[in-house]
């Protein structure tokens, strides 16, 4: 709620924003109020509910909430597709949607990240020796025949982007293993290297340019990177690895590379945080995305809600 966060199934079901109807909030002066209404439609003045979602505790403290619920799908099919380049894998993402299918998840993973997970967690899985990148693709619904037809259509779309092979998880255990590789990747990266994670998001058609640009910036400044994330909605987590960088370069030059990374992201029509929020770490980069007019409007909203600056002070701005 604080970050407006999502996850792997945002591509089909949306972020937490899609499911919050109303909540109780405690304001800076102790006033308690409900922000909206317990209805699917809301067009009565400013939408305070949506304003507070993603505000990172800077506008109020949420104490109760009313959520919209939807039925859980009865079935799902999970595929792991491999590609010889990062760019091919990223380009293939849009092709899935272009053939009229909205998967419940499309996750991108670089080979090195998968290797670390398999090694650290002792998962028995043989990677295609020619594969550099992978897409974990899930479709879900109520009719298995329709899901298999969707998978065939997806497979045909992927072939246009030099897909090496598509593996189907043929059991609940294998599904769990495939998802474990993705979900534990951050832990494996952290255990193998000093790193810094950035949370970029662009229109998914721009993912090939983003991944290529990330690698070019890394070569320029001397850092390596492992990327993975929710490719279906254009969200890549960029794990910048210290590797052989000197301590001085890591402390003083890395920031220049991050600035270029965010400039590229914004140039491609994206923004500097897809779901992790801004907090203290990212606030110095807000000017890359927003003008002073934008930032002053946000500061003004903060001042109205929290005139004394006591709610999560010094965050975001």
Structural class: alpha+beta
Uncertain stretches of 5 or more adjacent residues = none
* Quaternary assembly: single chain
- Relative helix content: 25-40%
Order of helices and strands: HEEHEEHEHEHEHHEHEEHHHH
Percent of residues in beta strands:
15-25%
Q: In the residues, how many domains can be counted?
A: 3
In CATH terms, what is the fold-level topology of the largest domain?
Answer: Alpha-Beta Plaits
Number of helices: 12
Strand order of the largest sheet: 7-4-6-5-9-10-8
CATH top level label of the largest domain: Alpha Beta
**Distance, first to last CA:** 19 Å
The value of Rg in angstroms is 21 Å
Largest sheet: 7 strands, antiparallel
CATH architectural name of the largest domain: 2-Layer Sandwich
Question: Please, could you describe this protein's structure?
Answer:
The protein is an alpha+beta fold. The chain has three domains: 10-70, Uridine Diphospho-n-acetylenolpyruvylglucosamine Reductase, domain 3; 75-186, Alpha-Beta Plaits (2-Layer Sandwich); 193-289, Alpha-Beta Plaits, CATH 3.30.70.2740. The chain contains twelve helices and ten strands. The protein has helices at residues 10-13, 48-52, 86-98, 111-121, 144-159, 172-183, 185-192, 207-221, 247-252, 254-267, 286-289, 292-305; strands at 20-26, 32-34, 61-67, 75-83, 105-110, 133-141, 163-168, 195-201, 224-230, 235-241. A hairpin with a 5-residue loop joins β1 and β2. α3 packs antiparallel against α8 (207-221).
């Amino acid at each position: 709620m604080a970050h407006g966060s999502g996850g792997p199934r945002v591509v089909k079901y949306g972020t937490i924003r899609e499911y919050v109807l109303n909540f109780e909030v405690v304001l800076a002066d102790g006033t308690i109020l409900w922000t909206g209404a317990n209805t699917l439609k809301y067009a009565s003045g400013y939408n305070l509910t949506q304003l507070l979602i993603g505000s990172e505790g800077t506008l109020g403290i949420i104490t109760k909430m009313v959520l919209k619920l939807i039925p859980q799908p009865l079935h799902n099919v999970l595929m792991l597709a491999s590609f010889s380049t990062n760019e091919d894998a990223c380009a293939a993402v849009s092709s899935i949607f272009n053939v009229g299918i909205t998967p419940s998840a499309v996750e991108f993973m670089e080979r090195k990240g998968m290797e670390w997970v398999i090694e650290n967690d002792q998962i028995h899985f043989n990677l295609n020796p020619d594969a550099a990148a992978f897409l974990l693709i899930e479709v879900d619904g109520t009719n298995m025949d329709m899901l298999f037809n969707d998978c065939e259509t997806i497979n045909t779309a992927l072939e246009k982007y030099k897909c090496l092979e598509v593996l189907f998880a043929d059991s609940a255990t294998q599904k769990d293993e495939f998802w474990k590789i993705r979900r534990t990747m951050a832990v494996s990266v952290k255990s193998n290297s000093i790193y810094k994670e950035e949370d970029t998001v662009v229109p998914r058609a721009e993912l090939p340019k983003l991944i290529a640009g990330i690698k070019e910036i890394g070569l320029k400044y001397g850092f390596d990177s492992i990327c993975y994330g929710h490719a279906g909605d254009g969200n890549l987590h960029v794990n910048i690895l210290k590797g052989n960088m000197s301590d001085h370069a890591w402390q003083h030059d890395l920031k220049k590379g991050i600035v270029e990374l965010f400039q590229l992201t914004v140039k491609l029509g994206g923004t500097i945080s897809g779901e992790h929020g801004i907090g203290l770490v990212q606030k110095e980069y807000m000017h890359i995305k927003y003008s002073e007019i934008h930032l002053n409007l946000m500061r003004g909203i903060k001042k109205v809600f929290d005139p004394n600056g006591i709610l999560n002070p010094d965050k975001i701005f």
